[in-house]
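Figure-free illustration: sequence to structure, shown twice.
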Amino acid sequence: AQRDSRWGLGFTAAYTFSKTIQELTPFRNHYDRALDRSITNFDQPHIFTFSYVYELPFGRGKRFSLPAFWDKIAGGWKLSGVHNYSSGTPISISTANALGSLIFNPGNTVDVVSNQFAGPRGPGKFDPARDLWLNRAAFAAPAPYQFGNAPRYINYRIPVRKYESMAALKEFTWSERFRLQFRAESVNPVNRVVFGGPNSNFDSGLFGRISSAAGGRRVQFGLKLYY
């Protein structure tokens, strides 16, 4: 959806609902290719994107006029932003491949013994120092010389993706030729914590633990001269 307003606001919004399934190669078992049919590593059922540009109603030619001195400081500003919110991508549970030396298959997965994939957590928000994202008890090592029954990617995901970026800009003009644009930009302006994916190696003592996160708030300033 897209909308422009006489109040100086223009915005676009888009929502996508999808599901991506694929037979992922190379196959673990060429006699049972359905074993490797699963959602893909980039499957995200929900993606919402919202962007906007808003001309503040202050200054020359705007709804609220300002004295000449204040017009140079506070007039003619624009605010813009891009917001993106989406489902996390699915997780692949790996384990040691005891079959590789026998049938030369590319890898193996675990057995799924429960659909309670969420790991134990304390009260309040998820705390990576205390909580686990994956529940080890929901999985088991496959029997010797057997294929695990887990799909390549289980339908349990890394944390939701939340990203914002915002900017404020103002243009200064002199004569008919020169125009100077000042920009103040911020990525992750609210300093949101976006956790990475968990350790999904079933043989690891850190299985289920999240040890990474996206970078914090970043602010930058810029000048651009048009002539």
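We now fold a second protein in the same way, so the two outputs can be compared directly.
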Amino acid sequence: SAPVNIDRTPPLTSAAAPVGWSKTAVTVALSALDNLSGVDTTYAKVDGGTAQATDSVSISGDGNHTLSYWSVDKAGNVEPQRTITVQIDTSAPTITHTVAPMPNASGWNASDVTVAFQCSDSVSGVASCAAPQLVTGEGASLRVTGTATNNAGWSTDDTALVSIDRTPPTIIASADRAANANGWYSDDVVANFACADALSGVSSCTSPVALGEGA
């Protein structure tokens, strides 16, 4: 009799896809095996779309994507559909900060400042966010930098500028002229004040004061 070929076993298809979140578009290679009649066609569809005969699938766009794939052998056996999830996040997370206590109207603090960072990511989620930092130094525009990283590996930095002045200003009073040898004046005297501050600067300084008769 003529040869009789019987194949009751469907093929087996595997997908080479990255695990976890990817930072860019993903190409998934499909590989099918059939030890008897051989593979006829491999199919795939993304997110429930139209099935296409292919052995390579390109997936783009942020979010979670469902890839379904299967093969048919030359005997007509259809492999049950297999499904994997492809995750893509092409955007960096966001990070902002707050400071406590808030600086005064001139942008300065007179004590320690805590910088707290707030991180968010709407696609893959936040993997790490900078911890609060306590600033104990003194100076103008002290830089405090925090980093946010999402689960796809993107990172974003945010820098807070903190100005702290713990040192009071100086003030020196002086008369408008010298006293006589006995330490006395015979007329009104104007006392002038000289103020200085090497860091945050002088906000206000006492105006000259006129002094009348008396000790």
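Summary for the second example: Residues 3 and 124 are 56 Å apart (CA to CA).
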